[in-house]
Design a protein that fits this description.
Helix content: 25-40%
Number of domains: 2
Distance between the termini: 49 Å
Oligomer: single chain
Structural class: alpha/beta
Shape: elongated
Length: 379
Amino acid sequence: MSANTFQWDSTSSPANVEGVVDLRETWMGSVRVKEVRFQDLVDFSRTTFGQYKVVDTDKKVKVERHPSPQILFENNTIENEADFLHVKFNAPTLFINNRFRSTLDLTGATFEVQNSQVQNSHLCLSFNRINRLVFEPEHLGNPPSISPYQQFISLFAKPLQSSRVRQIGASECTLPENTAQDEEPLDDIYRTLGKSYREANDRAGINEAWYLQTLAERDDSSGGGQLAWVFLDIPSRYSVDVWRMVWISVFITIVFYPFYALEFWRIDRANKRNQRVPRLSIQTTAYTTRPRAFRFRIFESFFAKNNSSARRIIPWWDAAMLSIRSFLKLGLGTNYPKSKTLRVLTGLEWALGVFMLIHFILAVKNNLPFILPFLGTVN
């Protein structure tokens, strides 16, 4: 079936459909379904929205695009499953005040990107109640993986813009005439999606929906939003992305490395010129009287009064070790020369290390529901 305009508007007398509605593999230019109660399955699988087929004078079938395509589902109740499997959306799709009492299945749905003169396709939601949702997280912004390149690109991306989900009233979701202006806040929309993902046990979807909900709740123009930008959108993506925090931590240790290396090289050169004996004095962090082979020294002073020893400094090696140990704050008997510059650098890196450690703990805590099932732990 192919239709330029498909309209099922039962506003004056709400329709009650008892049988299966099978509209698979249809072509619809503009769609309006309103005030209909479907008691059985509704199947729009492999349907193309925003385009329709026509037969020209030479009896050839060609695909035409609706001049102002729009898909609107408003005030409908679907008691059984609603299948939109492998659907192609070529226009903004509006779901307003619908009740999906079973599953809204958007598996394999694609949102076609049109040219700059045509409005791109998005999923516009407002006050829908979805019992269970099947929707690929890639449509919510394709969260970056462990890849350092993807993590770097994500620092400059705008997840709320890359997501295909919009709120009614957004520029991408122009409402047709005689349509109620019901506008649900974007953070509430993502909260609803998160509940649906939990029902489906979709951990990736829960993670991404929670992150987008957090982004939608904060005001980019506020002081908190600006502060978050200074900290690279909070190192662990608001305590969601562990890998982002790991790569930023690696980046911090690399940034501090050349400063340590230059200072070690300066000390080495000065001692050679002055011919000091011992030529290179190294200060070794003292252990406590309580013997321990290994301990974390997160909040202990790096510059305690301690013993001194002498050995030759290897600038490139000692700089790398000092950068790593200052950031991680491990009590491994860290060696460093007596230098005010090194005291400032190690103190600053230690503070950043504690800051990142806090976010690591929060990120692991938030990801425990996704990690524990893989460890065989039963909640």
